[in-house]
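User: Please run a holo structure prediction.
Assistant: Happy to. Please share the sequence and the ligand.
User: Here you go; the ligand is FE2/S2 (inorganic) cluster.
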Amino acid sequence: MNNHPDYLKECREQEWRVELRKSMKAKERTALERVKMPEHEPEVRSRDHREVNIGLSEEQAVVEAKRCLDCADPTCISGCPVGINIPAFIKNIERGAFLESARVLKETNTLPAVCGRVCPQEVQCEEACFYARKLHLLPVAIGNLERFAADYERNSGKISIPETEKSNGIKVAIIGSGPAGLAAAADMARLGYSVTVFEALHELGGVLKYGIPEFRLPNEIVDVEIDNLKKMGVSFHTNFVVGKTADLDDLRKEGYRAFFIGSGAGLPRFMNIPGENYIGIFSSNEYLTRVNLMNAAKEEYDTPVLFGRKVAVIGGGNTAMDSVRTARRLGAEKAMIIYRRTEEEMPARKEEIKHAREEGIEFHMLSNPVEYFADQNGRVNRMRIQKMKLGEPDSSGRRRPIPIEGSEYDTEVDLVVVSVGVSPNPLIPSSVKELEVTRWGTLVVDKESMQTNIPELFAGGDIVRGGATVILAMGDGRKAAAGMHKTITDNVLNKK
Amino acid sequence: MNKIVSRKNLSEHVVKIDIEAPLIAKKRKAGHFVIVRIGEKGERIPLTISSADPERGIITLIVQKVGVTSHKLSALKEGDFITDVVGPLGKATHIEKVGTVLCAGGGVGIAPLLPIVEEMHKAGNRIITVLAARSRELIILEDEMRAHSDEVIIMTDDGSYGKKGLVTNGMEEVIRKEKIDMAITIGPAIMMKYCALLTKKYNIPTVASLNTIMVDGTGMCGACRVSINGETKFVCVDGPEFDAHAVNFDEMLLRLGGYREEERIAYESYLKTL
Ligand SMILES: Cc1cc2nc3c(=O)[nH]c(=O)nc-3n(C[C@H](O)[C@H](O)[C@H](O)COP(=O)(O)OP(=O)(O)OC[C@H]3O[C@@H](n4cnc5c(N)ncnc54)[C@H](O)[C@@H]3O)c2cc1C
Ligand code: FES
């Protein structure tokens, strides 16, 4: 799936690209400043759920695209988990061929409008950009440009529906409609398979819908991608829990020849400290699901959610940022991040941390909750926090937080969101006894084909990696589709 | 979308609804539940599958009007569609021949108790069922229970039917009379708490089926969490049935009240729209 060096070179030597490179001196390019992403003002946006980033205008995108030097050795590509042909899509923006740019993106990335918004570019492509590595300047805004091209295509009404091969009539099942499942479904449909996606919830999109809030990833963007899959002939079954509504054997009997498991890491972790089950203490999954999937904050919807004036969110990842900024939007006067390491170790995207700060979120670093207290109705009203210091690096390479004895202090809270990680969804592993799992509950797969120890079962995304990223999940889905196709062709078609 | 093929009022507040759900009907075992949602703006609530007919592809739910969603559901007519039905969820009841089983169902708990009584009876157990409610109209499914029990005792708070007294009074009377090998209790949390205290006193292994607040019903959110022997468990995937003597009912009672105010306001404003 990754772009072959020869292919990349061939693209780079196309006449128009050579011309474009010559049209401007490298010095002029590097003299340009990185175009700032226009955003809504913090005071305005923290009162509603509008998307924070407005998106680059055509003019801005072209200027930003000019900064890219179209390097002979594009290191950015090696920073991309799916190896997008980055210079090619950017140079297409520079020459004004926006639709072509989107097409280049889609050669490797099924969901560019999503990834342009939520990928941690600062530790991927942008970190590997020549500007960052060699010039110590701000990298080319690859993520913002990706978003621009994808949005341009969507808004143009000329979104290209990938061509599908003649139907081969072979049924495959995709379990879970998160980015991993959607990507696998797209590729299998393209190859002519008859694809059905099974989703446990009443909505499609996985974390993209129930987790990541509207202010960061509008639902509409995900829906457009799902509509495209429908146009390609993919069918979707919501309210269908594989392992419960039907198990793999039932589906086999229905004629499904291969399966992709993209069931995610949906099991929330708690800290198991005293008082954690008091009212007003949520997992981030529950809090975000109520607000995003069930629209609990809107009066005309039936699902309730508790509102907090003093909200503490435990954790330092994207999920924690999304929860704390959601609480802010739902009226919290004081919204705090409580994290046991320092900002440097926070796994959240840098942009989310910046946006959170602008929105008045308080950051309490080197702090860890040890106990919760409640009023007579059981509603949390206070938490005890212990200060931490950083010790030696642990197996993850991050410095390990060590509690400081006697440093405990109490703070008033009326809502707490626990966002300390998720575990793989155990539903499928527990319903397929022979499936090989690690001791963390993730599925064991072959890294190239994404095949599990059961030959017709493939898997990818968070169920394989634990909590990871959208782009990795999507990449896994595509690898698995290639693996499935190969296995099916070897076994089934050749035997005919 | 699942079609309602028939509905019947069991009492002023309780309806029985048959729904087309062929896959669920095929997989369903006693103890399983479904999550339903009414309308695009609806909430997701769990309901025990009372019985199922795999041949006709039908599941039966028994719904008591207690809040907005149960009210909306009971207002639906034959031929109407339910927006979402997903299941069967949870772990099925462990059915086994143990001897004499004392089954205690209170109020809303009577409906989910029925399939368990039925299966335990079929497994060859002697079944003594105690049904309890505030008053006569709230005792439901009496005939069905009688069909699968060796003995049925009815208790009402106001004495309007059966004996006057609490479910635990009825249970204790039985326990004093004969050897009970196992007890099953389903009903309001407060009732299950006292049933558990009672059977603990007599050392009778007891199962309680917990009716916590749920959102997804697939283990994703933790809204349904309870403490079992001090350990946090998710009712939707680890339950709904647990060793009643290990359940922290006080914590569960508090958590059930988590949205009481929101629910009251929503229900009142809903009733005004009728
Ligand atoms: C709040 C939040 C913010 C995040 N922010 C970012 C970010 O900014 N950038 C980033 O790259 N990543 C982010 N992530 C991580 C990213 O969303 C995940 O890594 C990614 O969604 C994983 O994709 P997936 O397809 O493996 O699983 P999921 O998106 O979790 O989808 C799995 C789907 O499978 C369904 N399912 C599960 N079991 C079954 C079953 N038995 N039968 C049928 N269906 C089933 C689930 O209901 C779900 O819809 C975030 C995650 C969260 C929770
Ligand atoms: S209802 Fe969400 S985990 Fe049980």
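The CA atoms of residues 3 and 81 of chain B lie 4 Å apart.
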